[in-house]
Structures are given as C-alpha cells and as structure tokens.
Amino acid sequence: MPIDYFDKVWHNGQYISWKEATVHVAAHALHYGTSLFEGIRCYATPRGPAIFRLKEHAERLVNSCKIYRVALAYSQAQLEEAMVDLIRANQAEHAYIRPIIFRGYGEMGVNPLNNPVEIYLLAWRWGKYLGEAALQQGVDVCVSSWQRLAPNTLPTMAKAAANYMNAQLVKMEALANGYTEGIALDASGHVSEGSGENIFVVWHGQMRTPPLSSSVLPGITRNSVITLARELGHTVIEEAIPREMLYIADEVFFTGTAAEITPIRSVDHITVGEGKPGPVTRKLQERFLSIVRGQAEDKYGWLTVCV
Ligand code: PMP
Fold first, then answer.
1. Which residue in 159, 171, 276, 283 is the catalytic one?
2. In the annotation, is 171 catalytic?
3. What are the C-alpha distances in Å from 137 to residues 76, 176, 186, 197, 262?
4. In a mutational test of the pocket of ligand 1, which residue from 257, 284, 292 has the highest number of ligand atoms less than 8 Å from its CB?
5. Over the stretch 194-243, which tens digit does the pLDDT of each residue have?
C-alpha cells in the first residue's frame, strides 16, 4: 500500500517536503544500520489531534541514542515540541509519527562517530496495522523458528533499525506460512515478542507478559496495558513465559503502537481459549480505545493535544 503521507517533513529543525526528504546512498545508516527511531500515534479526539504518550516515546528515542552514543543537538523537550508542531504544520487530524535519527553521509567504515547525526520527523496516516478484521476477530500466529536477539548481541531496549532485520525474518516466515504474525522466543527459549508487538497471556485468572530480560522492546502500549489491567483489578505478572503457555492460555493478545491491542485466536494452529477475543482482551481494548480517542477521562495524562 502506498504511504498516505503528510507533506511537511521536519529535518534538523526545518521543514522540507516529503519529496525532498532523501538521503545519499553512501549514508552510514544504509551500510551499517546506524538508525534509531520511534513509532507514535496521534489520535483524533473531541479536543483535537492528540499524541499518545509523547513524553515516553521521546524518552525512549533519546535513550536509544544514548545506548548507541549518538549525541543529540536537541533536548527531549525540544523533540516533543517539534512533534507537536509537525502535527500542526501538516494540519493532521490523526497520524502515525515516525521520528528517525541516523548517521548520515560522511565517512565509510564501521566507526559511526565521524558521521553527521540526521534527525527527521515524518508523519502519515496509518490504519489498522494487522488488518481491519484483526482487532475484532483476532489473528492467527505462529512461533517463529527465528529467535529474538540474544542479550549481549543487540540491545533490545533500544529501538534500532538493525533490530528489525531479525523482526523481518520472523514476519516473512510467518507470512510465507500463511500466518499474520510470528512470535519469537528469546535465547533461553521463553516467549519474547512479535515482530512489532509485545505479548500478553491470560492464564488461570492472571495476566502475564515477558519481562524486559526476555529481549523485548519496553513497549509503551505494554506499559499502558499493565496500568489499565491493574486499574481493572487484574494481577499482572512480568515473568518468563514458557512457549506451551501460549497454547493452553485462556487469552493471548499483542500490544503495540501500530497493532494497538490485537487478540490472538490461534498459535501454531492450536486454538487459544474459545478462538475469539476473550473478555479480558475486550475490556482492555475498550478501556484503551476510549482513553486514546478522548472519550474517557485522560486520568494518567497520556494525551498531548496539538491545537
Ligand atoms: N516490540 C517491537 C519489536 C516493536 O517494534 C514494537 C512497536 N514499537 C513493540 C514491541 C511495541 O512497542 P510500543 O507499544 O511502544 O509501540
């Protein structure tokens, strides 16, 4: 599907058009993967377009840069302001925002440090990442034969483009075998995450999600769902999940900025629960969507209205 983009792109503090937003083929990022990014949703609300958890996304972006020793000429607060301005400048009602920071054109060779740091903020309209029916009916997924990044290889607390080579292997294998998404296990064989989503299990009345030590991205939707689940009276446990728990769980679902809260109805052709979104998943979807759409009170201060 072509990108339904907003034309104004922020580059190192100035607006350029989408067509002008190009890089040289010798850019360091293209050769060595030197790129950190975010994915952020801005929802249409009765108060105007509102960015969901802008601060936490900007913080994760700044931390991804810190891990990779990328010095930024902009503070976290300045990047937050720039993203609000991007929504205003494009007069977007809703959007998916993609800040990307990478090492550009300069020198060749593995050492990134002598290459310029380029910051771009892009936005486009993005519908339902795993398909229109996914949120309502759930998706069929598999456990991947590819493992998630092992500790001490690539740090998964950074949202780095290079991590998505692994994610692409997981995704392509799943699609080739007729599944919507794949779930990777971590290096110890426990459940880690989907190619672009965290995962939750409801089992014996308790919710579980893999801990950060299971090579997962510290998902902001994951964090929001833990908060909402506890608010609704559920116990949420962050501990290693054995693969087979996916098969015998009452409910399994993905969380992510793009995927929001997507129910999983089968894993490896084994039906999860009743093969349809369960009551806990439904309730969390409802609560999450009512907050992000500005229909319920923003009691945690998660929305930044851009008017
Ligand atoms: N894991 C991976 C690998 C992802 O790409 C994403 C999407 N950013 C997530 C988890 C979910 O994170 P978030 O809820 O912050 O979007």
1. 159
2. no
3. 38, 21, 28, 17, 9
4. 257
5. 999 999 999 999 999 999 999 999 999 999 999 999 999 999 999 999 99
